[in-house]
Design brief:
about 375 residues, alpha/beta, 16 helices, Arc Repressor Mutant, subunit A, about 45% helix, Rossmann fold, single chain, two-stranded antiparallel sheet, 2 domains, globular
């Protein structure tokens, strides 16, 4: 049976409010999905809240909220969002769903997209939705989460995990990152960036939640990797080696790699690949440059290399991405127009040199 859409045909997001819900997290889907609009100004999502038993719902603040919709609303959902709650009881303690919650979740139809914010992931896990999948949760609870649900591959360092139809975020504000990512996945970078601007949040945060975990403070004289990252962003269209990045901070490759991961939660190679994917997405959406040219300007060297990285990161080819998210007859930005008329200094990075960067990282780890 096909899922019922809103009268306007919008994608319906249903937020499940449980007793003890965190108001900030409850509001994230409304702030992000509720503000997403098409270039013509039309709302792209319809956001509603439901609860297993309609009426007053306790929050972790000093006020309750009243939720009128019951669990039947889940049957109309295209996406279900489960924010964190401080009253999960057996879900958090034993990995078991109470009967009322299990009955509520049973209303969801096959093919529904599931999203959790913070420890809302415990609900998805207890329902069996994360078995055999990668997932994350608040860093303070990752060890307990892994012990309780050994069938799940827990990544404690990332801000969110996108596993297709099931997505999990880390703690609290990472729900903003995940919801913006979903808007970006559904409707492209331009729409997501506009939502971020309206919400006064960055459209994309570097690194993962590892950067927020309490660690011993570095000595005052210890340098950071900020300058190296800024340097790399200014020359994504050129070959960049791990040794060159380390040289920007006057560090050894080994020290730089360790410091970089401590600060961002990812390796230099992972970070660089992500930045190049974002550059490619922007150029595919907003310019008329050829795929071959975009592959060079984003630093992938060849269309085949770019296709491989976009397929891994986004699940689509460059051509399919452009067809879906093209913003119209786009003009190249001045910087792109400049590189179109004259080759940038240095030879374009080939797929071989891109792979050699990753090889050098593996050598450092050994």
């Amino acid at each position: 049976m096909p899922r019922t859409k809103t009268a306007e045909g919008r994608h319906r997001v249903v937020v499940l409010a449980l007793h003890g819900v965190i108001p900030f997290e409850l509001g994230i889907p409304y702030r992000i999905f509720g503000k997403a609009r098409s270039p013509g100004g039309h709302h792209l999502y319809d956001v509603v809240t439901c609860t297993p038993e309609p009426g007053a719902v306790r929050t972790d603040a000093d006020f309750p909220i009243t939720v009128e919709l019951g669990p039947e609303a889940l049957a109309e959902a295209d996406t279900i969002v489960v924010p964190a709650s401080y009253e999960l009881g057996p879900v958090f303690d034993e990995g078991r769903l109470p009967a009322a919650l299990a009955a509520a979740l049973a209303h969801a139809r096959p093919g529904t997209r599931w999203v959790s914010i913070c420890t809302g992931s415990f609900v998805l896990a207890a329902a069996g939705l994360l078995d055999g999948r990668p997932a994350t949760t608040h860093w303070h609870s990752t060890d307990h989460f892994q012990r309780l649900f050994p069938a799940i591959t827990v990544d404690p360092d990332v801000l969110f995990v996108d596993d297709g139809d099931v997505l999990t975020s880390a703690g609290v504000a990472s729900g903003l990152d995940l919801c913006l990512h979903i808007v970006r996945r559904d409707h492209g970078t331009a729409v997501a960036n506009e939502v971020a601007r309206r919400s006064l949040v960055p459209p994309h945060r570097d690194g993962g939640q590892a950067q927020y975990i309490r660690r011993p403070l570095p000595e005052p004289e210890q340098a950071t990797t900020t300058a190296a990252r800024a340097w790399a962003l200014g020359r994504l269209d050129r070959p960049i080696s791990l040794r060159e990045l380390a040289a920007q901070e006057s560090m050894s490759v080994r020290t730089f790699t360790r410091r970089f991961r401590e600060e961002t939660g990812v390796s230099p190679g992972q970070w660089l690949a992500a930045q190049r994917v974002e550059r490619a997405r922007h150029l595919l959406e907003d310019t008329e440059l050829s795929v071959d040219r975009i592959a060079r300007d984003a630093g992938f060297g060849t269309p085949a290399s770019m296709r491989q990285h976009l397929q891994a990161a986004l699940g689509v080819s460059p051509t399919a991405y452009r067809r879906t998210f093209r913003t119209g007859t786009a003009a190249a930005s001045p910087s792109v127009a400049f590189s179109e008329s004259s080759e940038p200094p240095g030879s374009p990075e080939s797929s071989e040199s891109f792979e050699s960067f990753e090889s050098s990282e593996r050598a450092v780890r050994r």
